[in-house]
Specification:
Strand content: 15-25%
CATH superfamily of the largest domain: Thiolase/Chalcone synthase
Strand order of the largest sheet: 5-4-6-7-1-8-12-11-9-10
CATH architecture of the largest domain: 3-Layer(aba) Sandwich
CATH class of the largest domain: Alpha Beta
CATH topology of the largest domain: Peroxisomal Thiolase, Chain A, domain 1
Number of domains: 2
Number of strands: 12
Distance between the termini: 18 Å
Structural class: alpha/beta
Helix content: 25-40%
Length: 406
């Protein structure tokens, strides 16, 4: 990277908590958020469970304003607020201290829930009374909602690159800062569970009717979830001018498309290996220096085998020096938000030394069985941590985070 990139703020809303601290405590404690899905009717589906988030309160917004917000916006706004506050970019009224802030954000469904509500109303009443929500059924509406709620504007990019979207949105933000296009960028991702997405994965038979077991020989499918995570990325000099201490460095980013299959990864995982090598090269580190990997680990039969093989190839003889876990067993697969939420977990592992355990293991997949994080593992000092994501269409992305050098 041409200019050093640091992270100064993080915020999250997940099925395990309404902020970073609560989420992390529950995750490290080995809790999971799997429960019966009550957001919509799942009659006729194979699967009836998911990991849903509790919507945080949004102080300062009137009831009418809240009614206009999609569930996706209500997940995104508090997560952005927490990130800006941590970075010292909010005033006493909870408004952005900078009027212009570039925004790189990821999602898959956006505010699809509004469109579903409109259709349900038509089916029940033969005509819809919900013209207001449809008027706000724009792909960029959640970005606009965040900007209005927190009082800033600026150029925005929405990455909808399936389940690698979050990592690519963050990587794009880092490249903007590195290349001198911006000194500070807000980035991250959000996803609210919607009926179309849930039923779609159910029709693919990709969701499990049992427990979600990433990297287990008895894995039978994924658990869907929702959430949001956001970051403030900037140059160290920009942070220093505000008197803000960086959390860590965003030192490496790699991405590539394998062009193998619409929904399946390349069986040998070679493109993912190339992506991790690209991220390591840009970070200036070797595979032996990466102490923790937050893996994609969907618990689907095809994904986990290819991903596990890619780790064996990438780490080679240094595999036993790292630790790996997929946190999707705890919070579900958050789709367009996955790369952002899981990047946050990699950063938390880096700065705390605590490692998220691999839940629900019965028969660990042999390729990486020895390095999957066990429950109640002792904290360890990490210099570098990596987050990996794969998406439909062959998207592969990796982010590397490093401790501050000073």
């Amino acid at each position: 990277m041409k200019r050093e990139v640091v992270i100064t703020g993080m915020g999250a809303v997940t099925p395990l908590g309404e902020n970073v601290s609560d989420t992390w405590k529950a995750l490290i404690a080995g809790k999971d958020a799997e429960a019966p899905l009550e957001l919509f009717d799942t009659k006729g589906c194979r699967c009836h469970r998911a990991a849903t988030a509790t919507l945080p309160a949004l102080p300062g917004l009137r009831a009418k304003e809240l009614q206009r917000l999609s569930r996706a916006s209500r997940l995104a706004i508090p997560a952005v607020r927490e990130a800006l506050a941590m970075a010292g970019l909010l005033d006493s009224a909870g408004r952005s201290l900078v009027p212009v802030l570039p925004f790189s954000v990821s999602t898959t469904a956006g505010g699809m829930g509004f469109g579903e509500a409109f259709l349900r109303d038509i089916l029940v009443h033969k005509r819809s009374r919900l013209l207001g929500p449809v008027a706000r059924y724009l792909p960029e509406q959640q970005v606009l909602d965040v900007q209005v709620a927190l009082g800033f504007e600026g150029p925005s990019l929405i990455v909808a690159n399936a389940c690698a979207s979050g990592a690519n949105a963050i990587g794009h933000a880092a490249e903007m800062v590195s290349a001198g296009m911006a000194d500070c960028v807000l980035t991250g991702g959000f996803e609210a569970l919607t009926e179309l997405v849930f039923v779609g994965f159910d029709c693919l038979q990709a969701t499990t009717t049992e427990r979600c077991r990433p990297f287990d020989l008895k894995r039978s499918g994924l658990l869907l979830g929702e959430g949001a995570a956001f970051f403030v990325v900037e140059t160290p000099e920009n942070a220093k001018r505000r008197g803000v201490q960086p959390i860590c460095r965003l030192s490496g980013y790699g991405h590539r498309t394998d062009f193998f299959h619409l929904t399946q990864p390349q069986p040998q995982g070679q493109v993912l290996v190339d992506v991790m090598r690209e991220a390591a090269k840009s970070a200036g580190v070797s595979s032996s220096e990466i102490g923790y990997v937050n893996a994609h680990g969907t618990a689907t039969p095809v994904n986990d085998g290819a991903e596990a093989q890619s780790y064996r190839t990438f780490f080679e003889n240094s595999l036993d020096q790292t630790r790996i876990s997929s946190t999707k067993a705890a919070i579900g697969h958050t789709l367009g938000a996955a790369g952002a939420v899981e990047a946050l977990f990699a950063i938390q592992a880096l700065i705390t030394g605590e490692l998220p355990p691999q839940l629900n293991l019965q028969s660990p997949i042999p390729e990486i069985a020895s390095v999957l994080v066990k429950e109640n593992e002792a904290p360890r000092t990490l210099r570098h941590a990596m987050s990996v994501n794969l998406g439909f269409g062959g998207s592969n992305a990796a982010l590397i985070f490093s401790r501050n050098e000073n």
